[in-house]
Amino acid sequence: MPDPVTEALLSELVIANRVLAREGVVDDFGHVAARDPHDPTRFWLSRSRSPEIVSREDMIRFDLDANPENPGHLRPYLETILHARLFAARPDVMATVHHHSRPVLPFTLDPSRPLRPVFHLGSVIGPTVPFWDSQDEFGDTAMIIDTREVADSLAAALGPHPTALLARHGAICVGASIPEVCFCAIYMQENAAVQIAAEARGAPMFLTPGEIEKTRKMQFGERPLNRAWAYRRARAGFGPL
Amino acid sequence: MPDPVTEALLSELVIANRVLAREGVVDDFGHVAARDPHDPTRFWLSRSRSPEIVSREDMIRFDLDANPENPGHLRPYLETILHARLFAARPDVMATVHHHSRPVLPFTLDPSRPLRPVFHLGSVIGPTVPFWDSQDEFGDTAMIIDTREVADSLAAALGPHPTALLARHGAICVGASIPEVCFCAIYMQENAAVQIAAEARGAPMFLTPGEIEKTRKMQFGERPLNRAWAYRRARAGFGPL
Amino acid sequence: MPDPVTEALLSELVIANRVLAREGVVDDFGHVAARDPHDPTRFWLSRSRSPEIVSREDMIRFDLDANPENPGHLRPYLETILHARLFAARPDVMATVHHHSRPVLPFTLDPSRPLRPVFHLGSVIGPTVPFWDSQDEFGDTAMIIDTREVADSLAAALGPHPTALLARHGAICVGASIPEVCFCAIYMQENAAVQIAAEARGAPMFLTPGEIEKTRKMQFGERPLNRAWAYRRARAGFGPL
Amino acid sequence: MPDPVTEALLSELVIANRVLAREGVVDDFGHVAARDPHDPTRFWLSRSRSPEIVSREDMIRFDLDANPENPGHLRPYLETILHARLFAARPDVMATVHHHSRPVLPFTLDPSRPLRPVFHLGSVIGPTVPFWDSQDEFGDTAMIIDTREVADSLAAALGPHPTALLARHGAICVGASIPEVCFCAIYMQENAAVQIAAEARGAPMFLTPGEIEKTRKMQFGERPLNRAWAYRRARAGFGPL
């Protein structure tokens, strides 16, 4: 039986599902996972269900090879292994998101013009957003991250960065907490939309590396992060804390 | 009196109307039809009413020349014949959609730059989206598919494909089930929007034929299709199954 | 005391206000008027209030010089004279709309690239959308149609057409009924958005004059017009008829 | 204890928070402040909370160095000093907004192509929208206006104008009242979106200086401003006055 610390995490994870759905970052597809607060070799993820309608009863605990514990009749996402291998590769990461945000998708179609922070809040995506293409190692596939081999390839491409693009597919975000990874995913979407609009006008300015580093650190500080999380929770129907 | 199998289909058809309206694929205009589960020479379609407000009492059964059975005072859509001739031409098809999705419309204005899958979920539109123009055979018309001759011309252009464009008008989608044709119509709309945004940045990548084939097959498998249908039903107000 | 015929018209006029607000054609600004059903030298228009919150008590009857009858404490729109002079110039017109629809606005900024039907439903705007610029006759103004002289200039530019553009300002639509003018304003907005998206991809196709003529006639027939009006009313909260 | 005049202002300030959130001008971030009606050396601003969920109890009174009076446990916005120094620099200003409106952001990425009124309602942004870049005086920063030095630099760039852009960050708006500054912020967003769409088609027309001057004056007159405020309040859930 999960303890209060784990139950609190699972409540936050359900809310994260609803937040990302509310903000249009995920829809029928896409998912968010969180590492177990007591056992770093375990993580939590919903069974195969769209984030907008996920609830506590959908949550399954997995090991880092995506083996479910006690799933009963619940069927996991085909891409559970994606999250498993990110948690395996990144001990600093406590929460992960996989999404197909529509403003981000054009950036998955042209590696020569990367996604880069164009406003201060976009700094959360980091200075470098790697571009991973399943074609490079695997040729024609069904374009789903459903094996350890493919997931490890993607995790290697992510490296130490907070976000990465999957060619012709979507993106991943990782963070030190659920609020942080949601902030990252939401502002990855916002930054992408602004960058597209700015590029249509001509060559935009980008944040300098120094600006990205200083701004990122400040935005993930307690006051901005708490304010953002309270706002997004409220919009998703979970009322102010 | 319709039997339980037919009643289940008609409930699903009403929900499909609401789903497509909710997702903005159809609005005052546009429609979705389903082949009768017992008699392949018959199909069901609402009387002339916008999908958002269609209900069970609006449903009429037609033959493949769009002759209504027992319509009473209900007046059919002027384009009922469009669906009739698609069901006649395609024995593999169990559900059809005609729409004027706004992101798709620009692709109906330039046959030299076809709609093509640009992300994995867009694979549902198929590798080839034929372009049909009423001008070619019929010159200036009122641009409505309301005769057998025009509908058969369009069905011939569709051929074996899942989707086709109607110049300066809209599109059609066909599928093996109601959830499948809705998934197809929704992701036709999504793919179109992403392709437009990507083209504005330069020449995007497209899915390879191998990727389209493998991804399409996987996306129409039970788990993704069920998840998508549960999500879209819920958004349209019909609660989780 | 208004009779049942007039009361029915005023109900329809209130609903038109809400419909155009719901569809984003009007917002804080913009208005819709209807000619009196008994006296062609009179018309009805709300006092100065945003369409989304207009109700029966806001309605004032005016003559064709915009003189209000019995307004009490209600203050009319500054642009009431715009509608008055349209009704004066066009005996065939029974309803008018003035709006600043955002997709339409870019077309008010470049007379060399006119708004033209790009899909069948856009045929309602007519084959020609005149471009009127207050600068031509009046130089620098406060850009509001608040005198008889300016309104008559605009009406002359409209001529026999169903729609016209006001440079750097917005547009007008006229029709034979309230449902017709709403259909026209809504599809003017839709066509504008599609034309902008299509032009971004390259040179789009346009409807031929023959297609516009035939399609317009068909779209304003009873079945399409009734279906559209029922849909828009329902979306605005006025339930199905 | 605040008097009725101050209480009325604070109610209006809470509503302004909700209005700007409802119109998407602000979201998790962004804020609106108002000068004290009795003491011009004081102003009111919420504690650090997203505008959509701000209420009366969040309001704190500050002096023009952003020192809070009696904040208790409430923590102010990090950018409180931005508003303080605007009120200090501009005795004519009674309300201020700082936002990151997404349509406006592309204009913060290219000083060579300024934001300019493209339709009559856009005249509220003024004929000149200065462009301020923290890099010029401060090099790489965390891109937040949280010191007196940075805030005074921004206020100096604003000069006598109603709006200014902050490079790679957002914008500020100032006005003679809360309804006026909200009208300004909302139409800054609207004008930006129209200008971007128009530029994509080619070189748009802009309002002349004479048009801007005359139109601005008229739009901030009682009837248009009251109508707009009633509309925006109602959309934010505060019912018609």
Structure, explained:
The structure is a homotetramer of 241-residue chains. The first copy, chain A, starts with a helix and ends in a 6-residue tail after the last helix. In chain A, strand 3 (59-63) and strand 4 form a beta hairpin. The mean pLDDT of chain A is 96. The first copy, chain A, has one domain (4-235): L-fuculose-1-phosphate Aldolase (3-Layer(aba) Sandwich), CATH 3.40.225.10. The first copy, chain A, has helices at residues 4-22, 80-89, 134-138, 148-158, 178-201, 209-219, 222-235; strands at 31-35, 42-46, 59-63, 68-69, 95-99, 131-132, 163-166, 170-175. By secondary structure, chain A is of the alpha+beta class. Chains in contact: A-B, A-D, B-C, C-D. Chain A binds chain B through residues 27-29, 48-50, 52-53, 75, 78, 100, 102-103, 105-106, 108-110, 113, 135, 139-144, 167-170, 196, 199-200, and chain B through 118-121, 123, 190, 193-194, 197-198, 200-211, 213-215, 217-218, 223-224, 227-228, 230-232, 234-235, 240.
